[in-house]
Amino acid sequence: MKSITKLLFTSFFTTLLVACQSEALFPDTDTSVELIQLSPEVQAIKDDLDLSHFESDPSGIDVDKIVIDWENHISSQKEDGLWYQFPLTTVLPAQLKSDLIVQQDYMLVVAISEDVTEYSLVKLAHLEGSSPTATYLQLGGFHGMTYLYDLNGATRGVAYVENGETHTSITTEHWHHVPMSNCDVHGLADNVRMGTMNHNDLHDQGCDGGGSGWVRVATDHYTDWYNHRGGNTWEYSHTEYTGTTYEYIWVEGGGGQYLNAIYLPDAYSGGTGNDFDLGEFYDWYYNERDEGEPLRIQIDPSLQDTVAGCVLAKLMLGELALYRDTIGSFEDDPSFNLTFTFGECSDGDDACTSAADLSDGNITIKIQNQGLHALEYASLILHEGIHAEIFRAVETYTSELLNPNDWERLGQLYRNYLADNGNNTETTEAQHRFMTERYVIPLAEAIWKLDNKRYPLDDYMKFGWDGLERYGFTGYFHDGVFKRLTREESNEDYHNQDKVLNNTTF
Amino acid sequence: MTVIKKLYTVLFICLISFSIHSCIVQDSEADTESYEILNMLIDKHAKPLLPPPPPLPNTFTYDSVNIKENYYSGHWSSKSDSIIYSNKLDSIKKKNEILSKNIAQIIAIDPYFAVPWLADSNFNFANSPEKQRLYEALKAIQDSIPLRIDRLKITRNDSLTYWSKAQHRRRKGADYVGVDIVASFSRVAFDEKKQKAALVVSFNRSVLAGFSAIYFLEKKDDKWVVIDTKGLWIS
Ligand SMILES: [Zn+2]
Ligand SMILES: [Zn+2]
Ligand SMILES: [Zn+2]
Known about the structure:
Chain A is α+β, with helices and mostly antiparallel strands.
């Protein structure tokens, strides 16, 4: 085992490049002696370059491992100054989970204007059809993504380039850092969407094509370890996973299927962790699950490729009691059919539960709003799930959700508001009063658990209050005690929710 | 000016005024009726929220009777409790009515008589051809028309504003700010004599708390009254 510590070199390993880059895996660091005199300008650039503050997140570039080819620069005079570009010769990380990216190149780009010298490390991610020889200063024929990082490693800008022309870009002002999650693909200036339902939103941004949008893809980073066996003999020991970084790429048209394919590419392994795959899940859900048994929880195809559909799948596979006792109860009740779909409620809603055919046992949960965070969809789905279960419970007088006290109180409220378990103002009042008293904390707890209890439960209260705030302001009974939600508390809940949403990996 | 010319001018003016007149009459009739229906529905549904009734101690033990029946008949709680509860509720309700009058709300109205949200519905009002016809007329409506809140006259002391997502939601996922209720209405389908009507209505107190229904109305003593509803969803 000691011999492993005698490793000489670690390289980033990529399955994309491993076949053709054997020499690059072993750069001879001992002989990196300068043989050629650099021009004074290049020497100055080299002397002034300080990479000691460069953070490898989010670019995934480990500056200890890069080698800059100072001798092979190109330069270009632009309006805003003289630009230099130096290739980075070391093989850099990237086992892209996306099979859309065919090649990835790195370079140092320096822009020298009258008053400022700006260094950027640039990554070019070539998509299919891109000219493999294109560089940042020679973008002709390039099709793909350009990523600029400053010397602290922060993202300076991301652009999608088509035929050498910048098609759309995002800059740091709009950068909204949300860590990767399986379901949550947006989070960027609130405009990143998944699926094909976002046509109009993208039109509003002046972009064409249904389903186009920024999509965050994962990049796994690996280091290969070798044992030195004397002389020139190196024996491969193992490959160490060193982390995952995420970046946005622009995807044109094509709709949800395409987005889904890049977003959740791993094989569904039956789990809900990082290897969760939505397409595989729905394959299983529709084709393999309990063969021959009817699906009592139907998921309309309109939801499959969406964040909401992804969240629903994860809830289904998870172990949340609140899910099991609400939506889950429909699995066991052959007299009911619960359907989830994208659909129109009215302009003021995010989702609704239609029990217009309750006598036939049909309940439909429609999800309307696009572009929510995954955890927000989770609380919205659970909220509607509680409605569905109350509808079902009152019809059948059976429920795992309601204990005797709940039945008592629900009965009082139904009677007080003259509710008849219909789709009307009386029933919505009774149910929301009941939910305000009874489910704010369980809903918050559910989201807290989905988020792996990253922060204290208190920080998740907005999820519990979703749709119930106004009843909270008006006053409600909790454990028999009259309480009011204050505006200050609510503002604090929103504030905490922002923090949760910006850091969740659900 | 020749006589012929004069004649043409007169004829022309007549034609113009006639067409304008008939046009206005037709439009204003339809509009006035629609707005009257909305006035009635807003008065009926846009009431302020008030605190709920306090919980009663648990005294009820369930028998096998259908729970819905229990809710209505009142034998879901022992009789004496039920009476105490009713009395308690009565006093609360009276208090609430007084309270309610002093609450001024802001009601946001969707700025269009919308295309009815019935595209994916397939109801069958088998026992009422009248309703079936109105429902089908509603489903046939293909376009929306502007809704002017200055033409609404509500009896409560509330103010009306146009609903705007941009203005009334801080961000996606956030609840309403600056409005207490959001109301949306579809265009109204009338029968030939404008004595019967139907429309889709939704009232929301929050992004996840509201309801929507088809309302069937009839004109009685010059006033629109609800004769039936078909619930669509709660949110
Ligand atoms: Zn932010
Ligand atoms: Zn998000
Ligand atoms: Zn609700």
